[in-house]
Write the structure tokens for this entry.
Amino acid sequence: MLWYGGDYNPEQWPREVWAEDIALMQRAGVTVATVGVFAWAKLEPADGAFDFAWLDDVIDGLHEAGIGVDLATATASPPPWLTAAHPDVLAVEASGRRWSIGSRAHHNPGSPTFRYYADRLVGKLAERYAHHPALVAWHVGNEFGNEVPRDYGAESAAAFRTWLRARYGTLERLNDAWGTAFWSQQYGSFEEVQPARDTPTFPNPAQALDYERFGSDALIAAYRAEAAILRAANPAIPITTNFMGPFKPADYWKWAQEVDFVSDDCYPDPLDPEGHIYGAMRRDLLRSLAGGKPWLLMEQSTSAVNWRPINGAKRPGQMRALSYQAIARGADGIMFFQWRQAARGAEKFHSAMLPSAGTGSRIWREVTQLGHELGALEGIAGTPVEPAQVAILFDWESWWAVEQKAMPARTDYLAAVTEWYSALHELGVLVDFARPTDDLSGYRAVLAVSTTVLSDDAMHNLDRYVREGGHLVATYLTGVLDPAAGLMSGGPLGSLTETFGIEIDEVSPRPPVDQPEIRARLGLSVEVVGEVAGPVGVWAEIVRTTGASAVARYGPGDLEGSPAITRHPHGRGIGWYVSAELERPGCADLLRIVAAEAGVSSTNAPPGVEIVRRGDLVFAINHRITPVRLSLPGRDALTGAATNVVELAPFDVAVLHPSSSDEPGADDDRARSADLLQASTA
């Protein structure tokens, strides 16, 4: 069964509304409702005074209507009585300021006092509902770290010291790893160590990196504490919490090992013409975190949100298009925040499945249409997405390290990854994300975008990937730091200098007024010919070749003639190195060549159109504001009609059982030709 529904907050409404809610859910095709995310004050209005009678009625009513319940632990925001009695649970900023109540998630989830009360509530919920027939999943907390990514109070300081003892064992090893001989920072005892709070100038980079690691682990520990209580009550009920895509404070590679299924909250900006690319990248990351297994879109909006500077509404069909994008890229359900639009509070302008305009609204018509369509596609649940042939390395530790202070220039790690992902998306290439130490042998090409922190194991793994036939594209700032945030032994790239056949003399960022261009025509031995051209951004590096060929060079300026892009056969594979910060057209130029040489197939989709295969179905999604005609022979999975040409209106979707001879990838040689990216418009 595909999940379809959203956050349901009956505690915000009088009891007489509940029956109407459930009846309308049935009309909309809702299969699951998430209940109780922010209901702690309603469940426990005073210390130890629990009231579950209202929740019994809600869950029983949903069950009678055939709607499953994703029951939240309600610990996402402590009630006023708790913080009034125990102000120590309130989170502390890096500046030392303590947060106040009046919003949500204002607590330190690692506070022992908070954990006592939160775990007590979770235990009561588990005792009462763990075997309820409506229960389909547990939902722990909500968006861990979103409001308070890190706590810097005394309790977190003590926990950090415990974490450091486990990591380093001895004070001598910690002092060595952190390089505390610099600036007279040497510690004489673990008790002297503090969190990475605000400092008058640059903080210790290794300490700051370790505090990011600790902070992510602390969030996981808070989740794990509640999950253990729930699992003990009934191990048959799956447990999850809602991720937030590429969310910097939480290393989701670690988190994904803790949940029974991966779920995501994703809100592409409907006013952003590239919002669908942002969405696709999030979907691909979640599928990768899930290890290729189906995942769940836990939250999206039906239209506008309430927290952007300009909260634009989605165009007609745009919600449906983005929903099918998630299904096509591996989601086994489409959920929203929230079911009924709030009348009061900070999220009253946030759209909902049942908007304040009621059942006569466009939003309601689109919600019911999608619900009925997904009901006809239940067979897709549990099926895999077609295997990706390209992976991008996504590394939280590199993200934390490369955006620290005291770097050669400011770097936006996520923006850099997004630029390369966007180029691949525009080329019609499906992408997985991976860690530097993962088994990469199944990919024809791998991109390491500013993968700044590399361990010895990671470097050996990447070298092995190339030697065994892989095509590895690495960009500037890859392999610059070791896991302790120190300069890489032997210089940038470490042992990967042999993989790429180069040495990097110096990183050489430059202001926007002094940005050269690169232009080169590449003619390779495999008869792949292409051109790479375009301006260079802030980042550049001075590269010497020690075996690689300089296939693109810098234009006029102090770097004129210096290698900008190099190519090095290594073992059975190819190591490409990009020392320049390319804009997207330059990225696309290079990736077109790499894809053709590596044998990467493409869907040949025109700009703004996605074509993705999952299971036995092909999804064609038009994210453009203009119609498009596609040559896609097959049978429409929603209507049963046979077709040779698919006509998609703006934000329209086609779901097809393809004709066998025209399935994506059926003619690999054609797909891998030099005309890899010819638009397949009819």
Summary: The CA atoms of residues 236 and 625 lie 46 Å apart. Residues 661-682 have pLDDT under 50 and may be disordered. DSSP finds 18 helices and 25 strands in the chain.
